[in-house]
Write the structure tokens for this entry.
Amino acid sequence: MKKLTYMSVFVWCILPLTSFCQPQEFSQSKTLIRYATAHLGNGEKIDNAYIELQGKSITKVADANKTRINEADYDTIIDASGKHIYPGFIIMDSRLGLTEIDAVQASHDYQEVGDFLPNVRTLPAFNTESKIIGTVRTNGVLMGQISPVGKGISGQSSVVHFNGWNWQEAAIKADEGIFLSWPDRYRQTGWWAEPGSSKINKNYDDQVKSIKDFFAESKAYSLSQTPAEQNLRFEAMRGVFDASKRVYIRVNWAKDILDVVQFIRSNGIKNATIVGGSESHLVATALKENNISIVIDRVHQLPSHEDSPVDEPFKLASLLVNQGVEIAFASSGSMEAMISRNLPFHAGTAVHYGLDYELAIQSLTETPAKLLGIEKTHGTLESGKAATLFISEGDALDITGNNVTVAFIEGVMIDLENHQTRLNKKFAKRHGVAP
């Protein structure tokens, strides 16, 4: 009898957990968002829009001034008069879900030991329970490229959305790219608050030769579909040479970028993107001619050199776009967990310094979707694409106007509360003020 009682208790305790963790079932109810200013993500906007959602998809995008809608057809109507609606912003080259506390080494899971590790995958390490993810969703950052860090080839990146129970459910595209850190010809001493002098990297030529040799061996291996002996590292590199994977190369200085351009051409790499590119505006012609895009890392930073204009990082986006180079935005490096939520405001600063507003939105949505190979399903407000979008009461790129009130990821309306908003309410209540 006791055994039966215990078993009954166990079953009753476990059933809610198992049912709670089942894959989400998407309702086929129809939702209408009406009268918002819709920034489509492709460089265009509709001042008074209808956006229809059903299941996981957007099923209609229309100008409310030119289209008749029968509101009785909808289960839910969201009135967004005077507000703005955007596709979910995509953060590039991110460690979200791979690190929790910058100062605590044990919370880091973004780097392995070794110089050439293309077979290392970030996706299985992605932690959907990270508290930081909730803070970036609050500002409209709903998807990200989760990327490794390290010397040489650090591994493969993947694209996720920020509303999964686990990494399998969060994955949008697995192992879409390879990350390569190019050696610096010159190394800066000091730190960001007190930069020191530059020193020549005496090992630069040897380090570049090691990269070239590895790519040459990988390319030779990829020519055979049935190698006599399987090599996991070379197997992971196949996508580089058949153009199914993009190569992301972290490099900043103009001379080094030109070396990278030559390296890309000599290896016949068709899909290549430079990450960082502090001096990329100086070699924009070479980048455009070779169809190489730039992921601008941290608009909010000091200029590259002591004698550089103080606003150089703020103008970089507009300088590149004006010369025909495709761009996207990232927020990586130290304290990344803290600053990733500011991704929209990096683009907003670029707008203030010359970048067209709708192009800035495109650089957070459609352009990264193209680079990541998910443009057919994500990146713009279009019928047939994933219902991953958000509504802001004001300008989402302006820190004083951004106030995300509603957000959907893959058709599911998400909870925008996070650890920080809960603390805000807690202490506001304690002191008797409105949060």
Remarks:
- The longest strand covers residues 171-181.
- The chain has 13 helices and 18 strands.
